[in-house]
Amino acid sequence: MTRSGASHPPVKPTDQSGRQEPATNPLTTSDSGGVMGDRVFSGVALLAGAAILVTLSFVAIFLSFNSVGAVYREEEGLILEQFLEYAYPLVVGTLIASLIALVLATPVAVGVALFVSHFAPPRLSKSIGYLIDLLAAIPSVVYGAWGMSFLGPALVPVYGWLHQNLGFIPLFAGAPSQTGRTIFTAGVVLGVMILPIITSVCREIFIQTPKLHEEAALALGATRWEMIMMAVFPFARAGIISGVMLGLGRALGETMAVALVLSPGLLSASLISSGNSTIPAEIALGFPEAPPGSERQAQLIAIGLVLFIITLIVNMTARWIVNRHKEFSGAN
Amino acid sequence: MTQTQQQPTLAVVDGTAEPPRQQAREPSPLLRPASLAQNRVPWWTSLVVLAIAAVLGAALSALISFNLALWLVLTAVLYLVISYCVTRVKVNRRQATDKMWANLVYLAFVIALLPLVSVIWSVTSTGIPGLLESGFLASDMQGVDGTTDQRSQEEGEPVLGGIRHALVGSLLITLTATSISVPIGLMTSIYLVEYARGGTLSRAITLFVDVMTGIPSIVAGLFGAAAMAWFLGVGNSLGLPVPTRSTMGITAAIALSVLMIPVVVRTTEEMLRVVPNELREASYALGVRKWRTILKVVIPTAISGIAAGVTLAIARVIGETAPILVTAGFVVSNNWNLFQGWMTALPVYIFRQFQNPTSPNFSDPSHQRAWAAALVLIIIVMGLNLTARLIATIFAPKKTGR
To answer: How far apart are CA B148 and CA B279, in angstroms?
Structure first.
């Protein structure tokens, strides 16, 4: 992106005076409207960029401003503890569902990415990649309906078996749900939803592995798997981590799938009985019923702000890992 | 020196046998072509192992209690184990490990396909009856209540009600969101690619676009609702004729724009960056102004990619439920006015029909409508994805002639 400065029309008006051209030049004499057009166009582009900055700051400002009512009451002053008591089970529930999703999706996603980049016939790998991207195209409400009506009932016998045989572990204690609408089912649905994200990030980075490294490993007699362990994974480690973090960011904020699949309840350690809830599901189920300007609405907006901050941290960490990796790896 | 004395043999690579040092002067028998076949298993081994695993799996699952899922799981596990053992015995440990991981990778791919197939099959099979119901696309939910649904379920009368109002709402909200997001997103990426020179502002915009990409959709909805409520409050205090309630279509469109703008910026920026610099320089050399260069050279070159990116962004937001649910609400009848009254979108319609069936005790008709609506939604989204792909390939800039 190095263009000579002379070909640039001035962006700042101050440069204008220094670039007076001879009036006899036919290319510029009839072009007074062009100068104006340049200024207007660059100004509009700048405004659009600034609009994004303003929008995002508005998001933060409005959410903070509207959530004051959840932590402050006229009569009692600060009621932070009350809010924390409300927020804590929801935050933990969100983390549990997202962790289940990550644990299930990560190995499969890495496997699928390897399949596309190193195992599938090269001619097919593009269409296989498209097939996996289709998973990302399905709307979340459809996943929710699927999880509620098909996956949940299908998992009921599994829950019964787990409870019978592994019931001594707190995770599988408690009466198993008869409808399958549990936090574990929600986690499985979330896992399916974040699978394509992790897969596409991993695939991109696997494909970038230097061919010379791979060929050197194979030439030394490594099997294909040893080559992957020695050449591909060390190169792709940061990429895999950032893909997982991006998937986590999506799982944390996913609303409809959880709202439909989970029959919400109090926080409990059991994954196989109904209970627990997540922040987005709580907002989606509660907000339409909350009267405008009420304390309940402020509470929901405040918990949304908490969610915003959590996903912000997760996503920023992912980007930071990717950018740091870019500096060393020589990829791109 | 040592290399010439010590022949590299397959046995060395193997790591299982001692290298035959005494034969260093003669070519090792292991290096002959015929010997290469010794360390491999015939091509049909996998098929035989799979057949054995399937039979054993069937037998085992019959012992416990036969069902399809259990049989498939057992077959997969048995296949992994037997295949590892056969390679271990016939070849060596390293090849066996390689084989096992390769099998696991194939298995991962199959596992990833299962939900895709299951979702599409379940939506199609349960959605078609509702979709074939006459008037499903042409009617709304007005006049459909618990008693009509009860009659449908108990007496087999046709299921009434449809998704016309939801289609109208989705169309209006998505179009409005697109017409807000595309100009802002396109101009931002033009700023980033053509005008910014790596300054603080462009870095800040890139960072903020990254942040916006990660905003949970429900938070965008909360923002839309809160922002519109504040805006209406201000307008009201100034005495402007504004609606009293912030729940309306335009609020949802604003919330969706927050989700859509970063997607548009990302894709168009990428497309503008791949436009060759020679084209810009050729245009400048002809004395063309920068803004005309951008409008007449850069954007036409990148237009196929931009159009594909915008289509994908539309496909993403048309399936969003949460932001519309908290900003536009849901109604049973048609509403063409974005600035007044509640409005239903297709995903919200699906959600409400599942979550709060029209008749709580007779929920079958509601579920049938919901599945049919889900099928329509999937068809729309897949169609948009396909369109994006077609646009990107058909209208791609010509590679020849440069």
So the answer is: 65
* Structural contact between residues B141 and B315, judged by C-beta atoms closer than 8 angstroms: no
| Distance from the A93 Cα atom to the nearest Cα atom in chain B, whole angstroms | 16
**Is B382–A287 a contact, with Cβ atoms under 8 angstroms apart?**
no
Residue B211 touches partner A, C-beta closer than 8 Å:
yes
Closest of A9, A15, A60 to residue A36, by C-alpha? A9
Query: How do residues B257-273 score in pLDDT, each as one tens digit?
Result: 999 999 999 999 989 99
The DSSP line for B291-336 is HHHIIIIIHHHHHHHHHHHHHHHHHHHHT--HHHHHHT---SS---
CB B148 within 8 Å of CB B159: no
Q: Which of residues 84-123 of B touch A (CB under 8 A)?
A: 94-95, 97-98, 101-102, 104-109, 111-113, 115-116, 118-119, 122-123
User: Mutual orientation of helices A279-286 and B217-237 as an angle, nearest 10°?
Assistant: 40
Smallest CA–CA distance, residue B119 to chain A, in Å, is 6
The kind and range of the H/E element at B388 are helix B364-394
Question: A117-128: b or e for each residue (b if 16 or more CB lie within 10 Å)?
Answer: bbbbeeeebeeb
Residue B182 in this model has a pLDDT that exceeds 90: yes
| pTM attached to this predicted model | 0.83
Mean pLDDT of A1-20: 44
pLDDT digits (tens, 9 = 90+) for A94-118: 999 999 999 999 999 999 999 999 9
Instruction: Give the whole-angstrom CA distance, residue A18 versus residue A299.
Output: 58
Q: Taking each helix axis from N to C terminus, what angle separates A32-66 and B200-213, rounded to the nearest 10 degrees?
A: 50
Whether the complex's predicted ipTM is more than 0.85 is answered with no
Domain ranges of chain B: 2-39, 45-132, 164-394
Rounded to the nearest angstrom, the minimum Cα separation between B376 and chain A is 11
Helices (H), chain A: 26-29, 32-66, 68-71, 80-114, 122-137, 140-146, 152-166, 183-207, 211-219, 224-227, 233-253, 256-261, 279-286, 295-329
Distance from chain centroid for Cα A143: 17
The phi and psi torsions of B171 (rounded to 5 degrees) equal -60, -50
Q: How many CB pairs under 8 A join A and B?
A: 289
Q: Which residue of B has its CA nearest to A249?
A: B214
Q: Report pLDDT digits (tens) over B9-37.
A: 444 444 444 445 554 455 555 544 444 55
Q: Please tell me which of the candidates B101, B113, B217 has its beta carbon nearest to residue A255.
A: B217
| Nearest-angstrom CA–CA distance, A187 and A184 | 5
Structure-block tokens of residue B386? 């396909």
Contacts of A308 in chain B (CB under 8 A): 215-216, 219
Q: Architecture of domain B164-394 in CATH?
A: Orthogonal Bundle (1.10)
Q: What's residue B400's pLDDT?
A: 54
What percent of chain A lies above the pLDDT cut of 90?
A: 27
